[in-house]
Amino acid sequence: MMDWTDRHCRSLHRLVSRHAWLYTEMVTTGALLYGDVARHLAFTPGEAPVALQLGGSEPGDLARSAKLGEQWGYDEINLNCGCPSERVQRGAFGACLMKEPQLVADCVKAMRDAVSIPVTVKHRIGVDAVEDYAFVRDFVGTVADAGCEVFIVHARNAILKGLSPKENREIPPLKYDYAYRLKRDFPHLEISINGGIKTLDEVEEHLKHVDGVMLGREAYHNPYVLAEVDTRFYGATTPVPAREDIEAGLIEYARTELARGTYLGAVTRHALGLYRGEAGARGWRRVLSDSKRLAKGDLGIFDEARSHLRDGVEAIEA
């Protein structure tokens, strides 16, 4: 979710669900050790609980980066072993690491020695043409021996050559049964599943077999899908938030960010799907994407966007 799940995105999602665990976009060790740490790690306390996802393959660098994450207040450090992009491959991390389970184990151990918060791993089920379940089983077993207790399984292979990152999220077939088998083979581990999940009914079905479910693209493009998460899965007794209440909270958040000099579009771009499926949603998106209006930092843009919803002049979109 690089360039997607930044702090503004997470602040929106936290308005929708108080209890869902949120993850940062992947941050490389180089960006933290040689770049602007505050730009990559600063977040508001209201986002918590939030996990910092790291990209890297050198145990010492990952340990230092994990320590920074702990110091900045993150609740978990997650090592990305699933991203297939060429940029990540050039850095010899992401999905490439699945070919080197002992190196991943060394990285996990180094991070666990450096921090007191949980260290987790997100990974694919295979790489390129390797589709045997034994591959991912042995990967998880080796990394678990280093002390990792939580694995987030994107239930597709990563094709390192020939497919774009977008295609890697769509073309390799989903094999949810591999994640289910991992839970059966490692009942003492926490296994979560990711990939192609769009509804809370699907989430509920997966939870019959694994411990957790991660939503990525669906939660981004349709954030209101999270609205019933707290009551349905966390036993919350608070009312399910209405879209209008979420919007009101986002406006107050945007007001605070404008006072800090933040470009309004950096906030609104994450809310384009808030009214997905509602009459007038296209007008809402169009207005909140108007760069000229956004450059003025005028929060009245929300009123104009909302007018399309009130008028209901468009057909309900899927």
From TrEMBL:
Highest taxon, organism lineage: Bacteria
Active-site residues per Swiss-Prot or TrEMBL entry: C83 (proton donor)
InterPro entries in alphabetical order: Aldolase_TIM, DUS-like_FMN-bd, DUS_fam, DusA, tRNA_hU_synthase_CS
Name of the protein described by the UniProt record: tRNA-dihydrouridine(20/20a) synthase
EC number in record: 1.3.1.91
Organism this protein belongs to: Caballeronia grimmiae
Pfam families per record: Dus (PF01207)
SUPFAM superfamilies named among the record's database cross-references: FMN-linked oxidoreductases
Binding site for FMN: Q53, K122, H154, N194, G195, G196, G216, R217
Enzymatic reactions: 5,6-dihydrouridine(20a) in tRNA + NADP(+) = uridine(20a) in tRNA + NADPH + H(+); 5,6-dihydrouridine(20) in tRNA + NAD(+) = uridine(20) in tRNA + NADH + H(+); 5,6-dihydrouridine(20a) in tRNA + NAD(+) = uridine(20a) in tRNA + NADH + H(+); 5,6-dihydrouridine(20) in tRNA + NADP(+) = uridine(20) in tRNA + NADPH + H(+)
Start and end residues of each DUS-like FMN-binding domain: 1-295
Residues of the site described as Interacts with tRNA: N80, K166, R169, R282, R285
NCBIfam families tied to this protein: PRK11815.1 (NF008774), yjbN (TIGR00742)
Keywords assigned by UniProt, alphabetized: Flavoprotein, FMN, NADP, Oxidoreductase, RNA-binding, tRNA processing, tRNA-binding
Function per UniProt: Catalyzes the synthesis of 5,6-dihydrouridine (D), a modified base found in the D-loop of most tRNAs, via the reduction of the C5-C6 double bond in target uridines. Specifically modifies U20 and U20a in tRNAs.
